[in-house]
């Protein structure tokens, strides 16, 4: 892992101790009124996104979260309401609490169910935004559990259906943590070619996508992210693009049904602001063929993937999560390389809330 990361302008990225960043985010949350335990978990999960290298879904989201606390669209304290439950399933009303805290808690509760009964599923409605899905995967997967997290935001739309132009859904990510004999496989993908955060960053930096990721308002494919966000609006394309977008569209519909559909709050309901409907499921392999059997298969998949002949220009095949965990090890050893926009974006909040900004290494 190269420890000399740079930002988009080629300048070396400023680096910070991960513990300092967590303490900084936690202090901002608390000063903004968030309950201490919710703030501690939310800060840790948020920074984990940057530690793994998902820089649009880590601390870059914090100004929006602090604004939501200030205007009351994110609740600072409270508890989720369990509206329905059976032995291995629950539906929570998240009460618009921090999505990071809610999902972390849901993974923990579902893990207890799974260890007792083989599986546990929690569906959450009225959650606030949940940031980087990969941030929830490593701990349960290292504990030998298979974990699935899916999310949609029923109150916004930026992704068109295959063959369409009008956006009808969000990028609808799905993440899966899979145990192996070593590092877990950590899949975190969206059902669209790209997501809103990376698209907005490309617009701010004057960049275009490397491929046809968007459709403009006349239905023409485009690599210009602005066509999806300026009037008259086009949309993000589903995964598979113009040719095979039926695959991403189908995946998105599945996630819609398993998030908003199972939770009971989705696009058929009046919008209530930036947030999420969430599906969390944990599976204990010991209730099936056993953890050892699962890891024998996943270790073999890792080995044959690494042994694959590579395409021109590709040094080696990587499994999902290998890049993120390598970045995490480098960031913990050498400091977290933050995108150049993140600290300036938090400076005003730090000043208004009287929270010292951590020093770069």
Descriptive key words:
361 residues; alpha+beta; Hypothetical Oxidoreductase Yiak, Chain: A, domain 1; Ribosomal Protein S8, Chain: A, domain 1; 2 domains; 3-stranded antiparallel beta sheet; 10 helices; 12 strands; 38% helix
Report what the structure shows.
Helix 1 runs antiparallel to helix 2 and helix 2 packs across helix 4 (99-117). The relative contact order is 0.18. The chain has 361 residues and is of the alpha+beta class. It has two domains: 1-77 and 335-361, Hypothetical Oxidoreductase Yiak, Chain: A, domain 1, CATH 1.10.1530; 81-193 and 237-319, Malate/L-lactate/L-sulpholactate dehydrogenase, NADPH binding domain (Ribosomal Protein S8, Chain: A, domain 1). The strands form three sheets. A seven-stranded mixed beta sheet has the order 2-3-4-11-5-6-7. A three-stranded antiparallel beta sheet has the order 9-8-10, with no helix packed on it. The mean pLDDT is 96. Helix content is 38%, strand content 16%. It contains ten helices and twelve strands.
Report the end-to-end length measured between terminal Cα atoms.
Answer: 19 Å
Low-confidence stretches: none
CATH superfamily of the largest domain: Malate/L-lactate/L-sulpholactate dehydrogenase, NADPH binding domain
User: What's the gyration radius in Å?
Assistant: 20 Å
One letter per element, helices H and strands E, the order comes to EHHHEEHEHEEEHEEEHEHHEH
Task: Examine the coordinates and then state which fold CATH places here, giving the name of the CATH topology of the largest domain.
Answer: Ribosomal Protein S8, Chain: A, domain 1
- Which band does the percent of strand residues land in? 15-25%
Strand order of the largest sheet: 2-3-4-11-5-6-7
Number of strands: 12
Q: Choose one word for the global shape.
A: globular
Main sheet properties: 7 strands, mixed
């Amino acid at each position: 892992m190269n420890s000399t990361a740079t930002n988009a302008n080629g300048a070396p990225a400023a680096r910070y101790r991960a513990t300092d960043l967590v303490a900084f985010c936690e202090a901002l949350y608390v000063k903004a009124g968030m309950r201490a335990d919710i703030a501690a978990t939310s800060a840790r999960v948020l920074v984990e996104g940057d530690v793994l290298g998902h820089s649009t879904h880590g601390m870059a989201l914090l100004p929006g979260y602090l604004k939501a606390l200030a205007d009351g669209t994110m609740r600072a304290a409270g508890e989720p309401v369990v509206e329905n439950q059976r032995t291995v399933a629950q539906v929570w009303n998240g009460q618009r609490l921090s999505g990071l805290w809610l999902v972390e808690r849901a993974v923990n509760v579902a893990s207890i169910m799974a260890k007792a009964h083989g599986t546990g599923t929690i569906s959450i409605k009225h959650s606030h935004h949940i940031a980087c899905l990969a941030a929830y995967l490593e701990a349960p997967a290292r504990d030998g559990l298979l974990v699935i997290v899916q999310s949609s935001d029923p109150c916004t739309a930026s992704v068109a259906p295959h063959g369409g132009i009008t956006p009808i859904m969000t990028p609808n990510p799905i993440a899966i943590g899979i145990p192996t004999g070593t590092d877990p496989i950590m899949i975190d993908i969206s059902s669209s070619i790209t997501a809103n955060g990376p698209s907005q960053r490309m617009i701010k930096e004057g960049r275009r996508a490397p491929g046809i990721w968007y459709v403009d308002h006349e239905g023409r494919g485009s690599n210009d992210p602005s066509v999806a966000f300026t009037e008259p609006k086009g949309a993000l394309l589903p995964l598979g693009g113009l040719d095979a977008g039926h695959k991403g569209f189908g995946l998105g519909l599945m996630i819609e049904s398993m998030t908003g559909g199972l939770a009971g709050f989705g696009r058929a309901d009046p919008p209530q602001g930036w947030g999420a409907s969430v599906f969390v499921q944990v599976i204990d392999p010991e209730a099936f063929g056993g953890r050892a059997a699962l890891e024998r298969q996943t270790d073999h998949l890792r080995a044959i993937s690494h042994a694959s002949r590579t395409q021109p220009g590709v040094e080696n095949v990587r499994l999902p999560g290998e890049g993120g965990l390598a970045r995490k090890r480098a960031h913990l050893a050498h400091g977290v390389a933050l995108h150049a926009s993140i600290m300036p974006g938090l400076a005003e909040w730090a000043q208004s809330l009287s929270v010292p900004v951590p020093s770069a290494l």
